[in-house]
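Exercise 7. Given the components listed, write out the predicted structure of the assembled complex. Treat all entries as one system.
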Amino acid sequence: MTTPAGFALDPRLSADTLAVAALALSDLRLMNDRRFPWLILVPRRTGAAEIIDLAEGDRGLLYGEIARVSEALKAATGCDKLNVGALGNVVRQLHVHVVARFAGDPAWAGPVWGSGPATRYTADEAVRLIARLKTAGIT
Amino acid sequence: MTTPAGFALDPRLSADTLAVAALALSDLRLMNDRRFPWLILVPRRTGAAEIIDLAEGDRGLLYGEIARVSEALKAATGCDKLNVGALGNVVRQLHVHVVARFAGDPAWAGPVWGSGPATRYTADEAVRLIARLKTAGIT
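Answer.
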């Protein structure tokens, strides 16, 4: 795990999420929205906005982290579908969403982005979900 | 380029898109919606719904194709942001979106998915855009 000098998590990402773990490349965070089990990966690379802004080696690390998070999130939740996306229209700092979707969830079959205000977890719910994700191998 | 026996493009993807090229793993298609320069990659692998359903080698091919399409789409359009996503809530067949976004486009800063009905290209517009993408190195 390396954190280059000058890297700082975007304050909006920080405000909307809870820390889960520091992976080799990325900070792994849980979106604080109990409507959807929703993780984000934030590569600790200053100035990156697109996946193609990363060096080849970092892209490989990121893809490995996306796969690991995808497998664990699917195993922990039994979701119907994963949604994986890098958008960045609002927060430009590169971040990749990995979301567990269920037929009938509050945004189904649309995307979670722009689907209305978040409903916060209680502390107990957040701690238990993060523990469950770790048991499923997310880190 | 290999097409396994039994692979067939989902009919809804086929109806919504125009053929651009067959890449090593994926069929590259242009979403027939002139509101957004919007490409999709459809790996020719029967039964795959998630990126993690692909074998390791195929994942590597897909990531390479996403990068190439991203670079060319950005170069050809001068977009403000790329949106890259694998959702599949409506059409389950694995497909990856690579979309050129502009501040002020009809869905900005929200996602393109679920942003209302497509506006079709004229034949001339579609042919010219595909030619421009090819000049930018999309294939």
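Discussion: The first strand of chain A starts at residue 17 and ends at 22. Chain A touches chain B through 29 residues (CB under 8 Å).
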